Backbone:
């Protein structure tokens, strides 16, 4: 009797295998919520490079206090094109620069603070790391992101909700208009 059951089981398994090749089953329904087109593109990027460059590069400290002297910032040989070339050659599609970290030092000449490249000796206070970075990325057809820290240890209005939000939004607008 067990041989009969084994034969029947094998016959049904074979029949099911043959028939399943000819059946047109509908695909399963998607599990909601579905990702947006932008979310799918983000996942398909695979490689994103983050450049964490700023005042701490020159103070050799992990945590900036916001009291650093802007004259310490002097990247004499800064070459944003070289940074971006390395990213592009390695297959990165998006490069992100820390435009301002929690120490409050701005890598662009912000009109909202003197704690920026405009108070540094680099290019006689006329330099703009953000602009150079963005132009280099555009030349290589890479997408650009900027990180603007919401914490600013240099700004005296930090912690005063309305005043600081206006300050922060002003800096954000500078970067968006850049």
Residues:
């Amino acid at each position: 009797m067990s041989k009969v059951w084994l034969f029947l089981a094998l016959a049904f398994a074979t029949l099911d295998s043959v028939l399943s090749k000819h059946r047109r089953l509908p695909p399963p329904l998607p599990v909601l919520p579905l990702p947006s087109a932008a979310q799918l593109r983000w996942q398909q990027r695979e490689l994103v490079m983050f450049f964490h460059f700023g005042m701490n590069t020159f103070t050799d400290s992990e945590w900036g206090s916001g009291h650093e002297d802007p004259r310490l910032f002097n990247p004499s040989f800064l070459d944003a094109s070289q940074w971006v070339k390395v990213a592009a050659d390695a297959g990165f599609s998006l490069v992100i620069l820390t435009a301002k970290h929690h120490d409050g030092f701005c890598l662009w000449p912000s009109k909202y603070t003197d704690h920026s490249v405009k108070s540094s000796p680099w290019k006689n206070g006329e330099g703009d790391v953000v602009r150079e970075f963005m132009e280099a990325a555009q030349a290589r057809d890479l997408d650009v992101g900027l990180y603007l820290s919401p914490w600013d240890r240099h700004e005296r209005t930090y912690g005063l909700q309305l005043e600081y939000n206006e300050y922060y939004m002003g800096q954000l607008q500078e970067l968006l208009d850049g």
Q: What stands out?
A: Residues 2-20 form the longest helix (19 residues). The radius of gyration is 28 Å. The chain has one domain: 46-177. Residues 4-8 have pLDDT under 50 and may be disordered.
